[in-house]
Specification:
This protein is an alpha/beta fold. Helices cover 24% and strands 28% of the residues. A hairpin with a 2-residue loop joins strand 3 (45-46) and strand 4 (49-50). Bound molecules: alpha-L-arabinofuranose. Its EC number is 3.2.1.55.
């Protein structure tokens, strides 16, 4: 029997719903032939945006969407993507497959997507190859309602009223594809660019500075020391790559060793957040600056036969576990983690949706977001697992992983992962004060490499879980191998 203890009296911070955010880049089939099919398409759409995908994303309550990149952001010139579509500049997408970018999806289309989804836009500006003026004018174009060149241009392009844009990032990976800058140089550039991001008409921009890659602690230290007081958030990028960057491994065909290595590398996110937070604490002890994990997820070799620059990969129960563990980690660090964005929303890396022409399927990762939406805007509760170490040589992991919260109706929500490749666990869920309260649970389970395909799109999906009984101190149940479970009490 493994013990999971939840302490409803020990409350933590609010779990910002933005932790459940997504990322959509002009990369492969994320935007084009993904969410955006164009108004003339036979696939049902509103303003070119696929109706079935919008409906599916609304179901998981997508709270925030990051766009247009990624590496694409630091080569994107937003004025190329406004005005009559047939006059928009055609260019080459140098980062991703060298394909033609016709700019038919631009600022208006993205903000309309956010309106249809009911989510906050998170726009990533261009520092690497853009100017201060260009960035400043983009914010003016989107958010200023008075008389000005950019406001007038927006109205001439058919949108009289300004939008609200809450989140804005000043560059992406400026230590790499965003200009190969040193932290000292970028910190100064950040200070300069952000000065001209104005708050118009009551729109308060939450400014995000480019943060570190993985364990680049020096970057965090320099940024916080030189520019901490000018930012609302600092980003962090960390991907789970089972192998090496040269040979990452297959999305569906993996050994037990690779399975545990993937989970072990995912758990490293916890250490990264703790270490970066400690550095941030030195300059920002009140945790006013949010850590924005705006790229996370699995990164495998592309599916055989697909464009290597499109980063298209399948998604199995292993990915579901990676998502569930990461989301538990973000919940448990919600005093510092203010937002997170899985990479990426559709057809790219750890996607929640895959498409093939008019067909679409929901991946196991989608179903995790569905199970975990109960945590959005809830209050973190202290949770603890008496876990055992399992795995293979060099890849030992705890067998169980948990987070818990209390929502505004006083309901307690627990999300629990069994990391074992082949063994179930009997759970004694110890939680005070819940005697006689109703309990419901849902489960996502399957062989570690189980996945949905266009022939069998519902092979892996969430199901009701009834096999849960009350005890004197809480509840007892059995959780199968490679499984994600959500329990709601009250
Ligand atoms: O998500 C794919 C790429 O990974 C992004 O464009 C970049 O920011 C990161 O390196």
């Amino acid at each position: 029997m493994s013990k999971v203890i939840i302490n409803p009296n020990k409350k933590g911070a609010k779990i910002n719903r933005e932790i459940y955010g997504h990322f959509s880049e002009h990369l492969g089939r994320c935007i084009y032939n993904g969410i955006y099919v164009g108004e003339g398409s036979n696939i049902p759409n509103v303003n070119g945006l696929r109706t079935d995908i919008v409906k599916a994303l609304k179901k998981i309550k997508i709270p925030v969407l990051r766009w247009p990149g990624g590496c694409f952001a630091d080569e994107y010139h937003w004025k190329d993507g406004i005005g009559p579509k047939n006059a928009r500049k055609k260019m080459v997408n140098t980062h991703w497959g060298g394909v033609t970018e016709d700019n038919s999806f631009g600022t208006h289309e993205f903000l309309n997507l956010c309106e249809q989804l009911g989510c906050e836009p998170y726009i990533n500006g261009n520092v690497g190859s853009g100017t201060v003026q260009e960035m400043s004018e983009w914010v003016e174009y989107m958010t200023f309602g008075g008389i000005s060149p950019m406001s007038d241009l927006r109205a001439a392009n058919g949108h009289e009223k300004p939008w609200k844009v809450k989140y804005f990032a000043v560059g992406n990976e400026n230590w790499g594809c965003g200009g190969n800058m040193r932290p000292e140089y970028y910190a100064d550039e950040y200070r300069r660019y952000q000065t001209y991001i104005r708050n118009y008409d009551g729109n308060k921009v939450y400014k995000v500075a480019c943060g570190p890659d993985t364990a680049n602690y020096k970057w965090t230290d320099v940024l916080m020391s030189a520019a901490g007081k000018f930012m609302d958030g600092l980003s962090l990028h960390y991907y789970t790559v089972p192998g090496t960057w040269e040979k990452k491994g297959s999305a569906t065909d993996f050994s037990v060793q690779e399975y545990y290595t993937t989970l072990k590398k995912t758990l490293y996110m916890d250490e990264l957040i703790q270490n970066h937070s400690r550095i941030m604490d030195v300059y920002d002890p009140d945790k006013k600056v949010g850590l924005i994990v705006d790229e996370w997820g699995t990164w495998y070799d592309v599916e055989p036969g697909t464009n290597p620059g499109f980063l298209y990969q399948q998604n199995t129960m292993r990915d579901a576990l990676v998502a569930a563990i990461n989301l538990n980690i973000f919940n448990n660090h919600c005093d510092r983690v203010a937002m997170a964005n899985i990479a990426q929303m559709i057809n790219v890396l750890q996607a929640v949706i895959l498409t093939d022409g008019e067909k679409m399927l929901l991946t196991p990762t989608y179903h995790v977001f569905d199970l975990y939406k109960i945590h959005q805007d809830a209050t973190l509760l202290e949770s603890y697992v008496e876990s055992s170490l399992i795995g293979t040589d060099g890849a030992m992991v705890p067998d169980l992983h948990v987070s818990a919260s209390e929502d505004s109706n006083g309901r307690i929500n627990i999300t629990l992962v069994n990391l074992s490749h082949n063994q179930s666990r009997h759970i004694d869920l110890d939680i005070q004060g819940t005697n006689g309260k109703p309990v419901s649970a849902h489960i996502l389970t399957g062989e570690p490499n189980a996945h949905n395909s266009f022939f069998a799109p519902d092979k892996v999906k969430n199901e009701d879980f009834k096999d849960i009984s009350a005890t004197n101190t809480g509840f007892a149940f059995t959780i199968e191998r490679s499984t994600v479970l959500s329990v709601t009490i009250g």
